[in-house]
Design a protein that fits this description.
With 363 residues, the protein is an alpha/beta fold. The chain folds into 2 domains: 124 residues, Enolase-like, domain 1 (2-Layer Sandwich); 217 residues, TIM Barrel, CATH 3.20.20.120. Helix content is 39%, strand content 18%. It has 12 helices and 13 strands. The strands form 2 sheets. Strands 4, 5, 6, 7, 8, 9, 10, 11, 12 and 13 form a 10-stranded mixed beta sheet that branches. Strands 1-2-3 form a 3-stranded antiparallel beta sheet. Helix 6 links the parallel strand 5 and strand 6. Helix 1 crosses helix 2. The longest helix is centred in the first third of the chain and has 22 residues. The chain is globular. The chain binds magnesium ion. The site of magnesium ion (MG) has 6 residues, from loops. The site of magnesium ion has 6 residues, from loops.
């Protein structure tokens, strides 16, 4: 049965950051949140969203409004693959690219919200349905500006709360400082807590190999974005030279980029970000592709949406804890025994507070 899209709208809402967040190359300034609303002739409405951490939000909104929404009205909302492909093809001059992928994601997540609501099913079941509760690790206690003492206190608090892992930023000017900070945390928490590190693309291959060798005795679970995301050969060389699993994906914008990393053995953990890859439709393809390579998926940020996607797939290992939607939602993500629990409500399962969203609307 054809379900026709009769109305589509988009807007931009700025969210203040919940805490100071810094890494080796940047600070998270504000969350520019691009919303899309799609209404169909059977009276249902889907809400999707996408984001940036401080720049480009107005460009994403313009791409959605000027080029995607006009093609949506009149389309069959149940043909999600067809709509995605049509929008992708219609933006040929700027595809693949960050702005276009973020724009596609805002539309695609709205179509998935609609699909789930019409089916009366939560996203985690309709997208695959593997397990409702997924392990959660904390990033909020590991920012680069924090002192070693603050890192230790953060990791101990996460451990006491029953969480299985924490992530710490690395990339201090001197290798010794990274090692001292991580050693202090490892000594405090003992061997029973997963510790991940994240360099945010700040290193050369030679420097990453030097740092990885120094960090190996600390039993790290992964080394995230050691190099610029377009340096596949560098990641491949690093992966061959260290026992620490190399994690990449938060700065990649298409399925084919993941295919190349996986084919070359350059990624041991895949961190596809549902907004940056163009939505749930391509995200699931990346997750299944990774499964075929026996690689786990630990997506970047957006925990409120990724909890349902990690719960949908068999190779989802972790959700990253960075709460950022609390100001514009009426309920929070459920956390039980160090696990994030995917919501049962039909749709994406995010309980938006539309008054709070409107209050922060900038375009
Ligand atoms: Mg990262």
């Amino acid at each position: 049965m054809t379900i026709t899209i009769v109305e589509a709208a988009a807007w931009l809402t700025d969210l203040e950051v919940e805490t100071v967040r810094t890494d080796a190359v940047q600070a998270f300034l504000k969350q520019e949140t691009i919303f899309v609303s799609v209404t169909t002739d059977d009276g249902n409405t889907g809400i999707g969203y996408s984001y940036t951490i401080g720049t480009g939000g107005s460009s994403v909104l313009a791409m959605v409004r000027d080029h995607l929404l006009p093609r949506l009205v009149g389309a069959d909302a149940t043909l999600v693959e067809q709509v995605w492909r049509d929008l992708f093809a219609s933006t040929r001059a700027t595809t693949v690219g960050a702005i276009t992928s973020l724009a596609l994601a805002a539309v695609d997540t709205a179509l998935w919200d609609l699909r789930c609501k019409r089916a009366g099913e939560p996203l985690w079941r309709l997208a695959g349905g593997f397990r409702q509760a997924v392990p959660l690790y904390d990033t909020e206690g590991g920012w680069l500006h924090l002192s070693a003492g603050e890192l230790v206190r953060g990791a101990l608090a996460s451990q006491a709360a029953g969480w299985p892992g924490v992530k710490l930023k690395v990339g201090k000017p001197r290798l010794e400082e990274d090692v001292e900070r991580l050693r202090a945390v490892r000594e405090a928490v003992g061997p029973g807590l997963d510790i991940m590190v994240d360099a945010n693309q700040s290193m050369t291959c030679a420097e990453a190999r030097r740092r990885a060798a120094a960090l190996e005795p600390l039993g790290l679970s992964w080394f995230e974005e050691p190099l610029p995301a377009d340096d596949v050969a560098g990641h491949e060389a690093l992966a061959r030279s260290t026992t620490i699993p190399v994690a990449v994906g938060e700065s990649m914008y298409s399925v084919s980029q993941f295919r190349e990393y996986l084919q070359r053995g350059a990624a041991a953990i895949v961190q596809a970000d549902v907004a940056r890859v163009g939505g749930i439709t391509p995200w699931l393809k990346i997750a299944h592709l990774a499964e075929a390579f026996n690689v786990d998926v630990c997506p970047h940020f957006l925990m409120e949406l990724h909890v349902s996607l990690v719960a949908a797939i068999p190779n989802g290992r972790y959700v990253e804890h960075i709460p950022q939607l609390r100001a514009i939602t009426r309920s929070q993500m459920r956390i039980e025994d160090g696990h994030a629990v995917a919501p049962d409500a039909p749709g994406l399962g995010i309980d938006w507070d539309f008054d709070a969203i409107d209050d922060r609307r900038v375009a």
